[in-house]
From TrEMBL:
Transmembrane segments: none annotated. The keyword DNA-binding does not apply. Belongs to the type-II 3-dehydroquinase family. Homododecamer. Substrate binds at residues 74, 80, 87, 101-102, 111. It catalyses: 3-dehydroquinate = 3-dehydroshikimate + H2O. CDD domains: DHQase_II. Pathway: Metabolic intermediate biosynthesis; chorismate biosynthesis; chorismate from D-erythrose 4-phosphate and phosphoenolpyruvate: step 3/7. The record marks 18 as: Transition state stabilizer. One of its GO terms (biological process) is amino acid biosynthetic process. Its EC number is 4.2.1.10. This is 3-dehydroquinate dehydratase.
Length: 142
Protein backbone atom coordinates (compact mmCIF):
# COMPACT_ATOMS: atom_id res chain seq x y z
CA UNK A 1 0.00 0.00 0.00
CA UNK A 2 1.40 3.39 -0.98
CA UNK A 3 1.68 6.03 1.72
CA UNK A 4 1.07 9.69 1.00
CA UNK A 5 1.64 12.69 3.23
CA UNK A 6 -0.89 15.50 2.84
CA UNK A 7 0.73 18.71 4.10
CA UNK A 8 -0.81 22.15 4.44
CA UNK A 9 1.00 25.32 5.40
CA UNK A 10 0.13 28.57 7.12
CA UNK A 11 -3.44 29.80 7.48
CA UNK A 12 -4.94 26.73 5.83
CA UNK A 13 -6.28 25.72 9.24
CA UNK A 14 -8.71 28.63 8.75
CA UNK A 15 -10.27 27.26 5.56
CA UNK A 16 -14.02 27.66 5.61
CA UNK A 17 -13.68 30.95 7.49
CA UNK A 18 -10.82 32.70 5.71
CA UNK A 19 -11.77 34.59 2.56
CA UNK A 20 -14.60 32.29 1.46
CA UNK A 21 -14.93 34.27 -1.77
CA UNK A 22 -11.42 33.07 -2.70
CA UNK A 23 -11.10 29.70 -0.95
CA UNK A 24 -14.72 28.59 -0.60
CA UNK A 25 -16.42 27.26 2.50
CA UNK A 26 -14.79 23.84 2.63
CA UNK A 27 -12.74 23.27 5.79
CA UNK A 28 -9.33 21.67 6.05
CA UNK A 29 -10.95 18.78 7.95
CA UNK A 30 -13.33 18.29 5.00
CA UNK A 31 -10.43 18.20 2.55
CA UNK A 32 -8.44 15.77 4.70
CA UNK A 33 -11.43 13.45 5.09
CA UNK A 34 -12.18 13.47 1.35
CA UNK A 35 -8.57 12.95 0.31
CA UNK A 36 -8.15 10.05 2.75
CA UNK A 37 -11.29 8.37 1.40
CA UNK A 38 -10.30 9.04 -2.22
CA UNK A 39 -6.83 7.59 -1.71
CA UNK A 40 -8.17 4.58 0.21
CA UNK A 41 -10.42 3.73 -2.76
CA UNK A 42 -7.22 3.60 -4.82
CA UNK A 43 -5.29 1.48 -2.34
CA UNK A 44 -3.28 4.25 -0.71
CA UNK A 45 -3.03 5.54 2.85
CA UNK A 46 -2.86 9.26 3.69
CA UNK A 47 -1.46 10.96 6.78
CA UNK A 48 -2.27 14.64 7.27
CA UNK A 49 -0.23 17.47 8.75
CA UNK A 50 -0.79 21.22 8.95
CA UNK A 51 1.37 23.88 10.55
CA UNK A 52 1.66 27.64 10.55
CA UNK A 53 5.37 27.29 11.33
CA UNK A 54 8.02 26.98 8.65
CA UNK A 55 10.40 24.95 10.82
CA UNK A 56 7.72 22.39 11.69
CA UNK A 57 6.96 21.94 7.99
CA UNK A 58 10.66 21.51 7.19
CA UNK A 59 11.00 18.95 9.97
CA UNK A 60 8.01 17.00 8.66
CA UNK A 61 9.44 16.99 5.13
CA UNK A 62 12.74 15.64 6.45
CA UNK A 63 10.88 12.95 8.41
CA UNK A 64 9.07 11.87 5.22
CA UNK A 65 12.23 10.27 3.79
CA UNK A 66 11.84 6.52 3.65
CA UNK A 67 8.32 6.71 5.09
CA UNK A 68 6.15 8.13 2.28
CA UNK A 69 5.88 7.37 -1.40
CA UNK A 70 4.72 10.90 -2.17
CA UNK A 71 3.62 14.22 -0.74
CA UNK A 72 0.66 16.43 -1.61
CA UNK A 73 1.65 19.88 -0.38
CA UNK A 74 -0.14 23.20 -0.21
CA UNK A 75 2.57 25.54 1.09
CA UNK A 76 0.21 28.52 1.42
CA UNK A 77 2.04 31.85 1.52
CA UNK A 78 5.38 30.03 1.82
CA UNK A 79 4.95 29.24 -1.88
CA UNK A 80 6.19 32.65 -2.86
CA UNK A 81 9.28 33.13 -0.73
CA UNK A 82 10.40 30.13 1.33
CA UNK A 83 13.65 28.94 -0.14
CA UNK A 84 14.09 26.88 3.03
CA UNK A 85 10.97 24.83 2.20
CA UNK A 86 12.02 24.65 -1.46
CA UNK A 87 15.37 23.22 -0.38
CA UNK A 88 13.67 20.76 1.99
CA UNK A 89 11.45 19.44 -0.83
CA UNK A 90 14.39 19.13 -3.21
CA UNK A 91 16.59 17.35 -0.68
CA UNK A 92 14.29 14.53 0.45
CA UNK A 93 13.85 12.52 -2.75
CA UNK A 94 10.11 12.03 -2.16
CA UNK A 95 7.94 13.05 -5.15
CA UNK A 96 5.93 16.12 -4.20
CA UNK A 97 2.95 17.75 -5.89
CA UNK A 98 2.30 21.40 -5.05
CA UNK A 99 -1.42 22.20 -4.73
CA UNK A 100 -3.33 25.48 -4.48
CA UNK A 101 -7.08 25.88 -4.06
CA UNK A 102 -7.09 29.11 -6.07
CA UNK A 103 -5.35 29.88 -9.34
CA UNK A 104 -2.30 31.71 -8.04
CA UNK A 105 -1.47 32.98 -11.53
CA UNK A 106 -4.79 34.85 -11.67
CA UNK A 107 -4.30 36.58 -8.32
CA UNK A 108 -2.10 39.38 -7.01
CA UNK A 109 1.25 39.76 -8.73
CA UNK A 110 3.23 38.58 -5.69
CA UNK A 111 1.26 35.30 -5.63
CA UNK A 112 2.08 34.36 -9.22
CA UNK A 113 5.55 33.02 -8.55
CA UNK A 114 6.23 29.75 -6.76
CA UNK A 115 9.75 29.07 -5.57
CA UNK A 116 8.68 25.53 -4.64
CA UNK A 117 7.06 24.36 -7.90
CA UNK A 118 10.37 23.89 -9.77
CA UNK A 119 11.38 21.09 -7.36
CA UNK A 120 7.97 19.36 -7.47
CA UNK A 121 6.81 16.73 -9.96
CA UNK A 122 3.68 18.81 -10.68
CA UNK A 123 1.74 21.89 -9.64
CA UNK A 124 -2.07 21.91 -9.51
CA UNK A 125 -3.86 25.21 -9.00
CA UNK A 126 -7.32 26.66 -9.21
CA UNK A 127 -9.26 23.42 -8.87
CA UNK A 128 -10.39 23.83 -5.28
CA UNK A 129 -10.45 20.70 -3.14
CA UNK A 130 -10.50 18.54 -6.28
CA UNK A 131 -6.91 19.60 -6.92
CA UNK A 132 -5.81 17.60 -3.87
CA UNK A 133 -7.41 14.47 -5.34
CA UNK A 134 -5.77 15.12 -8.70
CA UNK A 135 -2.44 15.35 -6.88
CA UNK A 136 -3.05 11.91 -5.36
CA UNK A 137 -3.66 10.57 -8.86
CA UNK A 138 -0.40 12.13 -10.10
CA UNK A 139 1.54 10.46 -7.29
CA UNK A 140 -0.12 7.07 -7.74
CA UNK A 141 0.67 7.15 -11.47
CA UNK A 142 4.41 7.54 -10.83
Amino acid sequence: MKKILLMNGPNLNLLGVREPDVYGTVTLADIEREVRAYAAERGAEVDCFQSNHEGALIDRLHEARGVYDGIVYNPGAHTHYSYALRDAVSSIDVPTVEVHLSDIEAREKFRRVSVIAPVCVAQIKGKGKEGYKEAVDVLLAL
